UniProtKB/TrEMBL annotation:
Residues 16-119 form the Cyclic nucleotide-binding domain. This is Crp/Fnr family transcriptional regulator. InterPro entries: cNMP-bd_dom (IPR000595), cNMP-bd_dom_sf (IPR018490), RmlC-like_jellyroll (IPR014710). It comes from Hymenobacter aranciens. Pfam families: cNMP_binding. It comes from the Bacteria.
Length: 195
């Protein structure tokens, strides 16, 4: 399984804001503290406040919410990316969603309060995170449109184009749930050569 390094995170973060300098990124990445979570354990449970933002160094995690006893998958995180529930972290309020480790996972974590201090110290870091939030919002709007406008086959193909490696890392029932495709139909699509 992939393990992300500080160099990988510099490349990842510059995708959102290319002008951010090494000094600002070194300041941020130098503050990360290690955290390890075993496969199957919760990183964050619904009702808890996300006190730390997590940079995924290794593993795959699933973010989901429960509705009437059914789990609904929102997203997957894997290196290099961030794992978190934005509203809980940025507003320091109880999360409505949960994050669970699908594999043994390691993270670099930074507390909400320390991140705010870094924003005060470094305008490029604050701008970087604003650009990341903008990109996340844009991605959520695109995903919302896909669910309303695309057929299940089109949704499957788009996922395969973006994240085909997850087919080998994540149980298919979670991907089917994420794509809102019946497991039987998902299996047919996966086993076809059309994608």
């Amino acid at each position: 399984m992939n393990t992300a390094t500080a160099a990988d995170y510099k490349v990842f973060l510059r995708r959102f804001y290319a002008e951010v300098d090494d000094g600002a990124l070194d300041l941020l990445l130098g503050e990360l503290r290690p955290l390890a979570v075993r496969k199957g354990d919760f990183v964050l449970r619904a009702g808890q406040v996300q006190r730390e933002l997590l940079f995924v160094f290794q593993g795959v995690q699933l973010t989901s919410f429960d509705h009437d006893g059914d789990e609904h998958v929102i997203t997957f995180s894997y290196p290099p990316s961030l794992a978190g529930i934005p509203d809980s972290f940025f507003y320091q309020t109880p999360a409505q969603d949960s994050i669970r480790a699908l594999t043994d996972s390691t993270f670099g974590s930074i507390s909400f309060h320390r991140l705010q201090e870094l924003f005060d110290q470094s305008q490029p870091l604050e701008r970087l995170f604003r650009k990341m939030v903008e990109a996340k919002l844009s991605g959520l709007i695109m995903r919302h449109k896909e669910f309303h406008a695309l057929t299940i086959k089109e949704r499957f193909r788009r996922f395969a184009q973006r994240s085909a490696h997850l087919f080998h890392l994540v149980p298919h029932k979670y991907i089917a749930n994420y794509l809102r495709i019946n497991p039987t139909n998902f299996s047919k699509l996966y086993n076809s050569t059309a994608w």
